[in-house]
């Protein structure tokens, strides 16, 4: 079994078939070109878990209208904000999720002739592109993603499956990946040090564009692991986070406005 070349392998235990249409394989080549092997494997595992959930998680399996093409493409490209081979793809001022959503949307527009082309699932119109953008931009925010369109929910749940595997149903009852399914997917696309790479990547965002991390979970990596993933400059980053604490900023803003109330 190979994780670097298409066609993709079969999954007799999971009973899934990876997409093979032109748009998906083009996106696969794009992610492979610009992201590390560990990140690519992470994204492919997330796609595989979505196909498992489409098959047996009732809210997804019973929804005949769900746009599966949009989901699998969102999952395949959801971490393009981690692109390592071309700094021109990512920004210095956006959260990585927003970078990823922008990159994916631009890629689809280019591949489909401005968003007007078709894939197995139909035309990539403005609504469909926005659906994909939302799915990627919100993939780290389940408290919002779980209450949006089913495609956004499916994307977020599939990424949760990547992090929780057979333990997913403890967090989302009825949303299950079996041990055998998990092992089958992992055997095809091993982690390759993904946990350590993710830590380094997120701590790097705290170092290189800290303003994009202060209102979200990424800052917690800097608070715990410092700016180098090993504790370096942790105290300074913790101070920066405290100075930009949202409660203090909101309370301070209201206090400053009190002068206009009399």
Automatic annotation (TrEMBL):
Q: Which residues cross the membrane?
A: none
Report the superkingdom from the record.
Eukaryota
> SUPFAM superfamilies this protein is in?
HD-domain/PDEase-like
Tell me which positions the record assigns to the signal sequence. none
Q: Please give the name of this protein.
A: HD domain-containing protein
| Organism for this UniProt entry | Cladophialophora psammophila CBS 110553
The record lists the lineage as: Eukaryota, Fungi, Dikarya, Ascomycota, Pezizomycotina
């Amino acid at each position: 079994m190979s994780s670097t070349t298409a066609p993709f392998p079969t999954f007799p235990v999971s009973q899934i078939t990876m997409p093979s249409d032109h748009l998906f394989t083009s996106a696969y080549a794009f992610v492979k070109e610009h992201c590390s092997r560990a990140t690519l494997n992470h994204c492919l595992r997330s796609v595989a878990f979505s196909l498992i959930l489409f098959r047996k998680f009732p809210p997804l399996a019973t929804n005949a209208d769900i746009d599966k093409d949009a989901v699998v493409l969102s999952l395949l490209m959801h971490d393009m904000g981690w692109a390592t081979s071309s700094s021109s793809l990512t920004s210095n001022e956006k959260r990585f999720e927003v970078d990823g959503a922008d990159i994916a949307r631009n890629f689809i527009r280019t591949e489909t002739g401005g968003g007007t082309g078709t894939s197995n699932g139909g035309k990539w119109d403005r609504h469909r592109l926005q659906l994909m953008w939302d799915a990627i931009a919100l993939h780290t925010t389940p408290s919002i993603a779980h209450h949006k369109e089913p495609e956004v929910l499916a994307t977020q749940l599939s990424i949760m499956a990547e992090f929780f595997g057979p333990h997913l149903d403890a967090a989302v009852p009825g949303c299950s990946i079996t041990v055998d399914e998990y092992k089958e997917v992992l055997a095809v696309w091993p982690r390759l040090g993904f946990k350590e790479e993710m830590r380094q990547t997120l701590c790097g965002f705290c170092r290189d564009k800290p303003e994009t991390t202060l209102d979200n979970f990424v800052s917690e990596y800097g608070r715990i692991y410092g700016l180098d993933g090993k504790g370096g400059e942790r105290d300074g980053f913790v101070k920066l986070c405290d100075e930009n604490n949202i409660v203090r900023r909101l309370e301070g803003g209201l206090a400053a406005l009190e002068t206009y109330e009399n």
